[in-house]
Each structure stands twice: as structure tokens, then as C-alpha cells.
Amino acid sequence: MADKITVGHVHMSGCTGCLVSLADNYGGLLTILDKYADLVYGLTLADVRHIPKMDVALVEGSVCIQDKLSVEEIKQTREKAAVVVAVGGCACYGNITRFGRGGQQNQPQHESFLPVGDLIKVDVYIPGCAPTPQMIRNVCVMAYLLLKGTKEQKDLATKYLTPLMKAAQRGTTACFCDLMTEVINQGLCMGCGSCAAACPVRAITHEYGKPQGQRDLCIKCGACYNQCPRSWFSFDVIPEFEGITDIINGALQ
Amino acid sequence: MGTELGKYKSCVSARSTDKEILKGAQDGGIVTQLFAFALDEGIIDGAIVAGAGDEPWRPRPFIATTKAELFAARGTKYNICPNVSFIKEATRSYGLDKVGIVGTPCQMQAVRKGQLYPIGLRDVGDKIALAIGIFCMENFPYQSIVQLVEDHAAMKMEAVKKMEIGKGKFWVYGQRGQVVQLPLKVTHKYEQPGCHVCLDYVANLADVSTGSVGSADGWSTVFVRTRAGDSVWAKAIAAGCFETQPIEKVKPGLELVSKLANEKITKNKTTLEERATFGVGKALRNPYI
Which of A6, A124, A237, B274 has the most neighbouring CB atoms within 10 Å? Predict the structure, then answer.
């Protein structure tokens, strides 16, 4: 018990889909909670009212700046957590909450939803809508290895998390157009198809070998750009796919 | 020979023992034969291949779940086919639990990135049962191939029986038996720009990778790279799917594969360096971190 890390799930303005994704690890989640992490904070999951000190905060949702409590909680999260992970498109990039008009707000004046990184420093991004259970699981396992592992495991976790840390430094906006500006316009696209597979709203097709996006459909979750092997690609990590997959699967046994 | 050929467990020269496969094969029929065997054995439920598109020689990704469908996709089409775009759909509306995929080295990189960093690929990673990579120096947009075939080789696209890059030339074979060869210096400018930063020639990240280079005509060089690849390859050999020769006994053998791999990697590393000082105090982006 003593060498587990402490993890909290901080719920800002999101649909709880990210939390469902975490839960969709099923037995894997139980193993994580059993062996590697204590859940010290989480709406409906932990009977804790105020944000406690923790190793890793998994933040879901964007921050409504007209909601004082949300703003206060996200600031506290930064103070209390050693590592802040933005989980999902809303926390990373605003995602669908960028377009929030009418409908579901708590109060009519709630109109400004900011990605977490616009208010506090975020350490790691897990983009996508919803972020995948496997991606959340990988980051949880790697966070454990980073904080509690041997030197070798720490090195591996650092290498694995580095691209996700760089994604957090890159900024708080995402769009299908990133593929245009950062990949195709940079002469880097080779038409593999990853972006179209990653898009949760099927906004991307391929015309004559290059992605074509329906920008009206794009929800700005960042999945396409971050899945693209020509957005970022780590030769320290990806060629070791067999060994690293074994390590992750082994950790969840 | 250093890292240019990637990690591999074994390497042979091989060809399919199935005459029907060889009839329409680019070289040794490795991809079609291995997928056909894997389908028969239940190692895969289907494979994402370059199937027929709307225009002649313009492929589009196709999920083959029968031998006949695999056969229909035999042979190399030298232009872009976004096979990875089907990798999630294969596990959804097609319901495949064990997916085969064939692709270029960059597409194998995409598949492995998708397994280790499944940003938008929920429940896909562990369903990829067999990833076959093909050797690749560069690829072309469809319009480039049209221009090469129709303008340079003066042949109609629909009249072409086979295209091939080998022995320093781009070959276009017509259905009536005519053969046109173009020197590669003609084809270079038509290449897809994204290929010029690629540092992988022999699909280092595939389970099994294959291509003509290194082996005799009608044969293919095969690298078996991963546990998954090793397992299916050993079973296929035991089932008599392939004739093989030790690569050491074959001319030109691995020496040529290495030479071409090093040429590609060196050239493209230079491109990456030039991109760093492309403008005046402004760099083009480097995707590798």
C-alpha cells in the first residue's frame, strides 16, 4: 500500500465520458487501483469534498470561468497535484465546450469554457473525445513507473510521457486544420490514414491520398493531429512497441 | 550492416507455392499467401489491403475476408492507399477481432504509434494480429502515376497490366505485351513530398516485411521481425505455403537491401537537415522527437 501513488479525478465541465473511459478498463482499472494507485478524489467515486494533495490529477472537462467554484478548484488542483494530466479533448483543447451556447449550462451567463491549460500549467495531455481507455491506462501505468519505479522504469516512463508533455506545451487549441497547417503544408503527410481512423465524428476522408476534413463536423478534440505519425513520432519509444506492450500488459496481470 | 534493416529474427528469400497466387503476384506472392494462410487458420478474421478504386490503378483500402477478395487485391499499385484509415472500422462495422493489415513502412509506424499511443483508436491495438510491411523507397500521388504512365510512357492507364520499380527503372507493362521503362531520374520529381523525411526502407516495425529487393525475379526477400510474425511464418512454412532459400545463398542478397536502405536513410536525413534551415532563420517542422 505504502508505495502506491495517489490519483484524483477532477471533474470540470465535461460529459463524464472521460471518466467512463477510465472505467472501461474494467479489470485493468481494478488492478491499477489494487496495485498502483489510490483514488483519493473523484466525484461520486470517493467521499472527499475538497481537493486533497495528490501525485496525479486527472482533469476532465474545460473550466467555466463564470463559475467561481470551478476556477477555484482548478487552481487548487495545480497547487495540490504534482502532475496535472488533462484528460480528453475538453480539458486539452476545449473540444465541444468551445461551442457551448444555450441548453445545458447551469446558469445562463455560463458561456466561457476554457481548456485547463489556459488557466494553469498542464503537464501531460491525453487528447481525444472520448480519450481511449487504453491511453488513460498507459498514462496511469507510466505515471506509477515514473514516480515509484526503478531507474530503468523511470527512464522508460519519461520517454513514453515526453511526447504527451510536449503536446501539453504546444497549446490549447486543436482542429482538423492542424493537419493542414502542421503536416500537409509542412510537406510531411504521406497519406497513411491514421487521422481518418482516429476522428470520432468521421469528419475526415482521404481525397487523392491526403486527408480532407469537413470542418463543420470537427469538434476540435485533437485526436487526428495527435494520432498522426507525422505530428510527433518518438524513435526512442515506438520501435520498442513489443517490449513496452509486454510491460503494460504485465503490469495489469 | 547496422540498424538500417531494423530488428529481425530471421530473413529468407521466398515465394508462394500456390501457382494461382503467383500468377497475379508482384514478386513472390508473400503478402497474399501469408494473409490467405492466416485467414484459413483463423489467425486473422480479415485483412486491410489495397483494393480496386474508382479509377484504374487507383487503390482504396479494402477489407478482404475471403481468399477471392485477397486475390483481387494482388500486386503493387504505386500510389497512396490510406489503409490505416480502416483500422478502427475493421473492428467496428466489419466486426473483426483479429485484423491483418498490409502497408508501407510509414503505415507500419502509424500502426505501432496507434498501439502505443491509441489517442483515437479505442480497443483497436490488441486486435491487430498481423501487420505486413512492404519495402518502400517512395510513393506517388495518383496524378503522378497518371502522368508517368500516360505522358511519359504513352500508355492508357486501363491498358496497364503491371507496374514495377526495379533495376533502377520504373517499368510499365501493357496488357498487349508492350514494355516501357523510365529512368528513375524522370520519376523522382513526381514523388510524394512526405516520403522525403522517411527513415525506414524495409518496414522495420512490421511483424513480417517483404519486398523484391535482394532476391531473384519472382522471389521476395522476407524479414520476420516479431513474435506474432515468427509464429505465423513458422506455421505457414510448416504448412508448405512457401518455398524458401537462405538469404545468404541468394544474389544480390542482403548486401543490396542494406545499400538501398542506407541510401534512402542518408538522403532523407539530409532532407531533414535542410528543412532545419529552409527559410531565412525559419525552419520547417521536424516530426521526430
Answer: A124
